[in-house]
Amino acid sequence: MLTRIVRMTFQPEKVADFLAIFQDSENKIRNMPGCRHLELWQDADLPHVYCTHSRWDSATDLNNYRHSALFGQVWPATKALFAAPPLAFSVYPAGQDSSSPALPTT
């Protein structure tokens, strides 16, 4: 299981526009093959900063979404609202990446 987190800083006056985009697309994203979870987080101290947290069966599933027509609509519209570049990263639970052996335990 791959977890993807994308931290996005929006122009404060564009937050409502982003929320409308997210609301319109969240169920479509959740229905993409391999997507097991999607939620939106708002920063506790900076109300114009949001993170998407999603879980995917594999990196291939995430990349298939990232190359889909849906992503091609959602990401450019979202990106136009940024006040700063996004920070995105993908992680596996420690020792769970199928391409590497489990970490030793002591």
From TrEMBL:
A UniProt-annotated Pfam family: ABM
Name this polypeptide is given: Antibiotic biosynthesis monooxygenase
UniProt xrefs under PROSITE patterns: ABM
Alphabetical UniProt keywords: Monooxygenase, Oxidoreductase
Keyword Nuclease: no
InterPro entries named among the record's database cross-references: ABM_dom, Dimeric_a/b-barrel
Domain ABM stretches: 2-92
Molecular function in Gene Ontology: monooxygenase activity
Keyword hit for Oxidoreductase: yes
Alphabetized SUPFAM superfamilies for the sequence: Dimeric alpha+beta barrel
